[in-house]
Write a structure and sequence with these properties.
Layout (H helix, E strand, L loop, with lengths): L12 H11 L9 H25 L3 H15 L3 E8 L7 E8 L10 E5 L8 E4 H7 L4 E3 L3 E2 L16 E8 L2 E9 L7 H6 L1 H33 L13 E6 L4 E4 L1 H7 L3 H4 L4 H5 L6 H12 L4 E8 L5 E12 L5 E10 L1 H22 L4 E6 L4 E4 L1 H6 L7 E4 H8 L5 H12 L6 E8 L5 E13 L5 E10 L1 H16 L3 E6 L4 E5 L12 H4 L14 H12 L5 E9 L2 E11 L4 E8 L1 H90 L5 H17 L1 H33 L7 E3 L1 H11 L1 H5 L2 E7 L5 E3 L1 H18 L4 E10 L2 E8 L6 H6 L17 H11 L3 E6 L5 E8 L13
Helix pairs in contact: 2-3, 2-6, 2-11, 18-20, 20-21, 21-23, 23-25
Protein name: histidine kinase
Keywords: Phosphoprotein
InterPro entries: GAF (IPR003018), HATPase_C_sf (IPR036890), HATPase_dom (IPR003594), His_kinase_dom (IPR005467), HisK_dim/P_dom (IPR003661), HisK_dim/P_sf (IPR036097), PAC (IPR001610), PAS (IPR000014)
Length: about 900
């Protein structure tokens, strides 16, 4: 608990006198809270590390020796030891030392007699110091013991002892050992005993765990020796402490020892011919562990595992199982031997140690600041978990050095000032080292910390030996300050701060280089706005705005214009009350906004002129949508019709094939019948003659020869009809199929032919269709939409022919366009009709026979393809529609007009 570190070494007779004189010095003042916190921090760090190292390595003596040295340092004691209470069945109890400083002085305890009284009070008694240590059931601190002779040796040969402290420690109410400290200047008190309580808990935990480990280690060594000397059943003694299970190669129990019965409660009779898992596994048994054991047994390999098993009475326990295969002289697997041990106590102790370490870790993390401890002699820098966590490293008490901090952690720009301030404090020129600076975060970014430190230990010559301090993360505060500054800098407008009487206090210029201040800042800062003739235009608006703010208005805005050599500049001034007798004014150049408002006004007028046009466009789009919905419904209906037609067409086609087979067989039978007639001759036998005559009569009366000859022609016509039905269904499905939003490469000639086949019934009675299709490149388009255009134009052409006429359809490439022409010999159109044919809802058909949307939709589809549709017509001369569709290069595929 002292802030001055004392190195430990053996006390020579020459130094004992000096030590005695030092103890005679006046008692020091109570340590400060920061020193107590630092000492507690060191103690908790050491205990946490001791727990962790014992769990890893299992070695306790070095850890106890280190903890004793730390306790002597923190309490400023010269002598001490940590001993284990050992009680044998025969003889007196004794102390077995596990940590001692200096060495070999515990026997000297028998050379002292003391008058003792427990810390809780009670009668005093005289006894030897050794007996007092053994009999102390509660903390006991004593003043100077009285020397007596030890085996004839003079009392002068005994070491000097003063202010003797005995601290017993136990585990589960069972005494385990003693911690003894002596020769502390000023003696010992209850605060110090409370400070050392975590040390006592850790010593008890370590010694108790060591005892258990020693016990289990000796048992395991004994078992291993037995396993090496015996085979099969002789491998282990029948009454070993461990449970032994022998199974066959499939894992079925053949034998268990008494240890198995003692641990699990199952007798040998209850266990035979069953698997261990049937007896011992339960709800909390780890399936992964049992699966690994099962896999090892299946593969004939050994395995080791720890898991929760269950006794016969349902009580869970931790079981350590070592399962090894047994093979015969030929290497064949014959058995498994499992040696199992109840390790519940060890597991419980490990859990207690882990919980203790967790509590200590929580105590270390309870402070938000990072702690650091710099040894100025060695340069060693000890840091807390929080210190590491601030810099992005894995939290845990760690050590580094000053050189690493200087070269890798401290920001190079801040290092000179940090070292200057530290040197000022080390020289005594400042009461504390304090500096805001940056550290290098592990992720590469810098972080701001407020570092405070103070010298806590100096040499006798006054030289500083140790500095302890804290690091507070102030990155958020620094970032907030930087954000505020950046926010102010990012405001493009000019900002003025003025008093309520109009005096300018501060000024930030506008980032707009065109906003030149009427006056330089030096000429208006510190002066009232009302005293500057150059700003006369602002006198009254500013006075009115300030008056309104003082009366409670949250914001006042006014605009003004300034004549400049480059024209009139418009400004907007926003004033807010900022507290006290000050207001803030943000002045913005709104010239562009004013120009934009004028531009918007003119734009509004132009937009108003386009409203009617847009309305017409919307109506056309709506009509197209209606038609698209109709086509979608038609597509669904056509798909259903096609499906319904395909089924009967399929079995009709199958039946026709069957009829053809039957006809072939009938024809063959008739031929054989004729051959039979010829073979029988003119005078067949009487019974046969009657039947033969009947067959000849039937063949002649029913004209069977003619029927069989006509049957082939009938079947051929039927097959042709079925083929035409299939073709129609296929064309119908293709024509009305749902189309994606992505254009495709399509053959325009193929689309025209398919559309003509679909309309064949429309042309049969009205006209003759004459086609001339030149070879065309593939066109990137929406094929279904183009088919819709061709169908509308062909239907219009057919309906325009009043008596039988002709329709000419041509397709060819002209430069970079695909051109389709559809010409009819119908009645034609006059100029007035031609001018309105693409207008929505215009039609020349009788009411109820047309919607007036067909050609409108055609025009919309062709314009979507970046093409155009033209019409030539005269009354009585027929009509020609020309569709021009542009070809696009492949490199324009992703960014072409159709997208």
């Amino acid at each position: 608990m002292s802030k001055k570190k004392q190195p430990h070494r053996k006390t020579s007779p020459a130094r004992k006198k000096g030590a005695s004189s030092r103890r005679a010095a006046p008692r020091k003042a109570p340590p400060r809270l920061s020193d107590r916190l630092a000492a507690t921090q060191r103690m908790l760090q050491a205990l946490t590390q001791a727990h962790a190292e014992f769990i890893v390595w299992g070695e306790h003596r070095a850890l106890l020796q280190r903890l004793l040295a730390l306790a002597l340092e923190l309490t400023q004691s010269d002598l001490g030891f940590i001993g284990e209470m050992v009680s044998l069945s025969e003889g007196e109890p004794f102390l077995r030392p596990h940590a001692i400083f200096p060495l070999d002085w515990t026997e000297a305890l028998r050379g002292y007699t003391v008058s003792t009284r427990p810390a809780s009070g009670g009668q005093r008694s005289a006894t030897t110091l050794f007996d007092a240590v053994l009999g102390a059931d509660e903390p006991l601190w004593l003043k100077t013991p009285t020397r007596i002779l030890v085996e004839g040796s003079p009392a002068a040969s005994l070491p000097d002892l003063s202010h003797f402290l005995v601290l017993p420690f136990a585990v589960a109410d069972k005494p385990v050992g003693r911690v003894v400290l002596t020769n502390r200047p000023g003696g010992y008190d209850s605060d110090l005993i409370e400070f050392l309580q975590p040390l006592l808990t850790t010593c008890g935990t370590l010694l108790h765990a060591w005892r258990n480990d020693e016990h289990h280690r000796r048992a395991e060594q004994t078992l291993q020796a037995q396993q090496q000397q015996m085979k099969k059943l002789a491998l282990v003694a029948a009454r070993t402490h461990n449970a032994v299970i022998i199974t066959d190669a499939a894992g079925v129990i053949e034998w268990v020892n008494e240890g198995f019965t003692r641990i699990t409660g199952y007798t040998a009779e209850e266990s035979l011919h069953r698997r261990p898992g049937e007896l011992l596994y339960g709800p909390n048994t780890d399936p992964a562990v049992t699966s690994a054991i099962h896999q090892a047994i299946l593969s004939g390999e050994g395995s080791t595992a720890e898991m929760i098993n269950y006794r016969k009475n349902g009580e869970p326990y931790w079981n350590h199982a070592d399962i090894q295969p047994v093979r015969d002289e030929h290497g064949r697997l014959v058995q498994f031997v499992s040696i199992e041990n109840d390790v519940t106590a060890r597991r419980s102790l490990e859990q207690q140690v882990a919980q203790s370490a967790e509590r200590l870790q929580l105590a270390l993390e309870s402070t938000e600041d990072g702690l650091w401890d710099l040894d100025l002699l060695t340069g060693k820098l000890t840091v807390s978990p929080r210190w590491l966590g601030l810099l992005g490293y894995e939290e845990g008490v760690g050590e580094t050095n000053y050189r690493h901090w200087r070269e890798k952690i401290c920001h190079p720009d801040d290092l000179p000032e940090a070292e200057r301030r530290m040197n000022q404090h080390l020289l005594g020129h400042s009461p504390m080292y304090e500096f805001e600076h940056r550290l290098q975060h592990r992720a590469g970014a810098g972080m701001w910390v407020l570092s405070r430190g103070k010298v806590v230990s100096r040499s006798e010559e006054g030289r500083p030996l140790r500095v302890v301090g804290t690091n507070s993360n102030i990155t958020s505060r620094k970032q907030a300050q930087e954000r505020i500054q950046a926010f102010i800098r990012a405001i493009p407008d000019a900002i003025y701060r003025m008093k309520t009487d109009g005096t300018f206090v501060d000024y930030k210029p506008s980032v707009n280089t065109k906003d030149l201040s009427v006056l330089p800042p030096a000429e208006f800062l510190g002066r009232k706005i009302y005293d500057l003739p150059e700003l006369e235009i602002l006198f009254q608006p500013t006075r009115n705005a300030i008056q309104q703010l003082l009366q409670g208005s949250p914001l006042e805005i006014y605009e003004y214009a300034v004549e400049t050599p480059n024209g009139v500049v418009h400004y907007e001034s926003r004033l807010v009350y900022s507290g006290g007798d000050e207001v803030m004014s943000i002045v913005r150049n709104i010239t562009e906004r004013k120009l934009a408002e004028e531009h918007q006004r003119r734009q509004a007028e132009r937009l108003a002129e386009q409203v009617s046009h847009v309305t017409r466009e919307l109506e056309a789009r709506q009509a197209q949508l209606i038609q698209s919905e109709k086509l979608a419904s038609l597509g669904q209906m056509a798909a259903s019709i096609a499906h319904e037609l395909n089924n009967p067409v399929g079995y009709v086609s199958s039946n026709v094939s069957t009829l053809a087979t039957y006809a072939s067989l009938s024809r063959r039978l008739l031929e054989i019948s004729l051959q039979v007639e010829k073979a029988l001759g003119a005078q067949p036998p009487a019974p046969v003659a009657a039947l033969l005559e009947e067959a000849i009569t039937l063949r002649e009366q029913e004209h069977l020869d003619e029927h069989l000859a006509d049957l082939d022609e009938v079947l051929a016509d039927t097959r042709e009809g079925l083929a035409r039905i299939r073709e129609f269904v296929l064309n119908l499905k293709t024509f009305v199929r749902e189309e994606s939003d992505v254009p495709q490469l399509a053959d325009v000639n193929k689309g025209l032919r398919m559309t003509l086949r679909m309309l064949r019934h429309e042309f049969r009675e009205r006209c003759e269709v004459i086609c001339d299709f030149a070879p065309l490149p593939l066109l990137r388009c929406f094929p279904t939409q183009l088919n819709q255009v061709f169908m509308n134009l062909l239907l219009n052409a057919a309906q325009a022919i009043e008596q039988r006429g002709q329709i000419y359809v041509t397709a060819q490439q002209e430069e970079t366009d695909v051109v389709v022409r559809i010409r009819d010999t119908g009645r034609g159109m006059d100029a007035r009709t031609r001018a309105r044919i693409f207008t929505p809802f215009f039609t020349t058909k009788p009411a109820g026979q047309g919607t007036g949307l067909g050609l409108t939709i055609c025009d919309t589809i062709i314009r979507r393809h970046q093409g155009r549709i033209e019409v030539q017509s005269e009354p009585g001369q027929g009509t020609t529609f020309t569709v021009r569709l542009p070809l696009f290069d492949d490199e324009d595929e992703d960014e072409g007009p159709l997208h």
